[in-house]
Amino acid sequence: MYRWLVLSSRPDLWTLDPDVLHLNHGSYGAVPRRTQEVMAGLRAEMDANPMVWFRTVAGRLTASRLALAAYLETDPDGFALVPNASAGVTVALQTLPIPAGSRIVLTDHAYGAVRYAAERFAKARGAEVVIAEIPIEADDETVVALIADRLAGASVLIVDQITSGTAKVFPIDALVATAHDRGVPIVVDGAHAPALIDAPASAGADFWTGNFHKWPAAPRATAGLVVAEPWRTASMPLIVSWSEYDERMPERFDMLGTYDYVPWIAAPESLRVLAELDWPTRRPQLTTLVEEGAKVLAKALGTGVAEVAHPPATMRLVELPSSVDLSGGDALKLRVSRELKAEITFTGFDERKFIRLSAHAYNSLADYEKLSAGLPKLLA
Where, by residue number, does the polypeptide cross the bilayer (predicted)? Predict the structure, then answer.
């Protein structure tokens, strides 16, 4: 019954080590072979004549930026390239007025670096970080109600589109409407959203940011920032450089001196790889794959697959046995990597412990079966 899951796997499109089980695409992604080749050609060209490269790179950046904005189905005049979603959130916090005594509201699902950014700006401006607690099992109506309860006195709301640690899709349209009804600007951390949610930046947020290095499989350090029209004039890149006084928001973010622009320019090649994989058809196949893989692993561990309301297309949480100790930081993850040759990630929420499994086009059900054969003994 799972034959199609094996036949549809395309590891040949990547250069990943075939002796390793790559089951954590959600952290750092994986760049297709063709995109790597494009990057190598661009680097050779750059190093053959750096002067010509930096004189002509602006036009290539524009072409790539327009292609990435079109992929998100968003207004190119409000779309800028940034290194990652954390940088996008930082730009938003740098831009927004956060008066002393106000609140920066997040949820307890917020990505760690995003929470740190909120704490930095709160401290600098005399504001307070307020956390809305959201159960994993909460439905959309409950999510909105719990966050709405924390918005009194807020100067900004920061919410995930797809949570990183708990693999949960938040109701962004409803949250945007709720925040705006209360006069609160909203920043959407869409780190995992590109390629998993169609037109992810179209919900009307004041700021939206998302990574292309995850599910679109673009080179790392490639992300987008979408800024609503009222904030575009005030939005500035984190690095002050020669485009400081450019009146056009996207171009202000393009030219950052001797920055490595190769990943940004090569990123559209990964989108072409997804198109040739027929991503709209493949994505639901990957949902079936990761669901079956999670069931296989949960059965082997004697646990279950977490009942997450609205899980994303390509990630699932598998409960860990209560006896597993994650207090040693990355020690257990490194042990799994070394002894099982498997790349996975552990996560925790509300005193529960999980393995967050991912699936991409290079995976097959055999990957999860191999992990399930070795992991129980290692955890014993």
Answer: none
DSSP string, 154-212: EEEEEEESB-TTT--B--HHHHHHHHHHTT--EEEE-TT-TTTSSSTT-S--SEEEEES
Q: How far apart are CA 248 and CA 282, in angstroms?
A: 37
Q: How far apart are CA 129 and CA 106, in angstroms?
A: 7
Residue among 9, 45, 16 at smallest CA distance from 32: 16
At residue 136, the 3 state secondary structure works out as: coil
Distance separating alpha carbons of residues 333 and 326, to the nearest angstrom: 9
Q: d(Cα 236, Cα 243) in Å, to the nearest integer?
A: 10
Predicted confidence (pLDDT) per residue in 327-364, tens digit: 887 899 999 999 999 999 999 998 899 999 999 999 99
What size, in residues, is the chain? Answer: 380
Tally Cβ neighbours within 10 Å of residue 234: 12
pTM tops 0.85: yes
Q: What is the pLDDT of residues 115-156, one digit of tens each?
A: 999 999 999 999 999 999 999 999 999 999 999 999 999 999
| Opening angle at CA 226, ends 223 and 227, nearest 5 | 140
**367, two tokens:** 């990957």
The CA–CA distances, whole Å, from 306 to 123, 270, 298, 311, 336 equal 36, 32, 10, 10, 21
Tell which residue, 156, 171, 145, 164, has the closest CA to residue 90: 156
Domains of the chain, first to last? 3-31+277-379 (3.90.1150.10), 49-272 (3.40.640.10)
